[in-house]
Amino acid sequence: MTQPPTPPPYGAPYGQGQPFPPPGHLVVHLQGSWLISFVTPTLFLDGQRVPAKYGENHFPVAPGRHVVAGQAEYMLTYGRAHLEADLAPDQRVDVWYAAPWHQFAKQGSIGFEKQKHRGAWLIWSLFALLALVVVLVVVAGLSSS
Question: pTM of this prediction?
Answer without folding.
Answer: 0.70
